[in-house]
Amino acid sequence: MKKEFSKNTTEVFAKTMFHYVPDILKYIDEIKDPRKGHNYSMRYLIMSEILMFLSEGKSQRFTETAYKDTKYLENIGKIIKEEVKKIPDAEIYTDVFSRILGEEIEEFQYKINHQMIRNKIYEESKVMGKYNMVLDASRFQKAHYEVSEEWLSQTKEEKTTWYISMLELKLIANEMAVSIMNEMIRNKDKKRENETEEELKNKSEEEIKQDCELNATKRLLPKFKEKYPRLPVRIIGDSLYPCIEIMKMLEELKLEYIFVLKDKRLPTLTEEFLNLVSLPEGSRHLVENEKEVILTMWENEIEYQGIKTNIIRQIKRNKENGKYAIWMWMTNREITKNNINKIIYCAKLRDYIENQGFREQKVTSGIDLEHVYSKNVKAIKVIYTIIQITHLILQIIEHSDICGEFNKKYGSVKVFRRQFYAYLTREYANIKIIQIKIQIRFNKSTLTYSNYIEKR
């Protein structure tokens, strides 16, 4: 067992960040500063926001009081390699973040992810030569009053809630859900092309949610392909995404996909599949063990509105209680007896965006995605991206060996964050310890297909 790197959690954070993204300060410097003159550098504003989220803070008002008369300024000065004499007023963050171009903060996130991918940090997570990336949307910030016209709204039991929704593309690797790119869902996304206001009024909440996510997806995926033109990936999504517009777009972008398919989503396609696999020559595979009976059926090149796709249906019967579970997926990758289990494994990685991704950010880590961090739409994009970068560093600390055995030492990410705040404000970080070279490895139980097979 590896001896832990340091008990000082400020040093653990800084070492992890500079180990995996040694050029992060340079990347921050490359963000165009909208100010002509300033007392606080972009390095300070971005990094102090990261430290705030790690310290369980929910606004820069928090830093004005919680960090005052502590060792915070000297510690952040060591991290950003600048002398900082005073904590800025909270208004400075909103002013600067609201003027940073969306492309600038997206480029910042891209540079971090590109460095991680280029250094092959996630290489072992590839299945059939491709990285697995999951598409899904989540609420970010929620209020009980109308904040701006850009915010979405939902009414239940005569109570209206306003919120921001973000569409995420996350890479599933090493038991982590890493934000690769995001797209804000706006009010205009409620409408389909050429849809009238009257038609919009008659739509259900579920129909509006679907159109919002699909319209945002049409912007996000081409942007992703432009940024990562040669990255081998597959896009994984839930039952919302099987539709002809998304299927055609993925074919044009030359992106592999695996989507959950429900009987009522594309009923004519499902019906044709069931007719084909019921024939004597239909492809099927039966497995029986002590606990269950598993029947897997598949069919390739089923035509749907000019596009060919492939479908899998798996039925499991529990021998103990006699209950059945049925799943269906569609993919543009050819299904064979040799790769079908790998395709199903990839399809089920979708759960990680809910558990390791959104749920951890909303509940278990204490970041609290639904807190109102800003009312300015432009600033919201910057803050959300900084949260995703913070979460990336937290996940690396949790799933690597830099702290020894993380769960035994801290028990949860929340405990680590509280200790981080204590060390950041009460103990001076040793810059020499941060600068020493060490190896950081991910835990052996890391999420890979080979480990999954061994555990079955």
What would you call the shape?
globular
Structural class call reads alpha+beta
Taking the sheet with the most strands, its summary is:
10 strands, mixed
Average per-residue pLDDT, rounded, comes to: 89
Low-confidence stretches: none
Number of strands: 10
Count of separate DSSP helical elements:
18
Distance between the termini: 26 Å
Run of helices and strands: HHHHHHHEEEEHHEHEHEEEEHHHHHHH
Helix content: 40-55%
Rg, Å, rounded = 24 Å
Sheet-strand content, in percent, reads 15-25%
What does this entry look like structurally?
This protein has 456 residues and is α+β, with helices and mostly antiparallel strands. Helices cover 43% and strands 20% of the residues. It has 18 helices and ten strands. Strands 1, 2, 3, 4, 5, 6, 7, 8, 9 and 10 form a ten-stranded mixed β-sheet that branches. The model has no long low-confidence stretch (mean pLDDT 89).
SSE map:
Layout: H1 9-20, H2 24-29, H3 42-54, H4 60-66, H5 72-80, H6 90-97, H7 102-118, E1 131-143, E2 152-156, E3 159-173, E4 176-185, H8 197-201, H9 205-227, E5 233-237, H10 244-253, E6 256-260, H11 267-277, E7 283-288, E8 292-304, E9 307-318, E10 324-331, H12 340-348, H13 351-364, H14 377-399, H15 406-409, H16 413-426, H17 431-435, H18 449-455
Parallel strand pairs: 1-5, 5-6
Antiparallel strand pairs: 1-3, 2-3, 3-4, 6-10, 7-8, 8-9, 9-10
Give the gist of this structure.
The protein has 456 residues and is α+β, with helices and mostly antiparallel strands.
Can you tag this structure with a few keywords?
456 residues, alpha+beta, 10-stranded mixed beta sheet
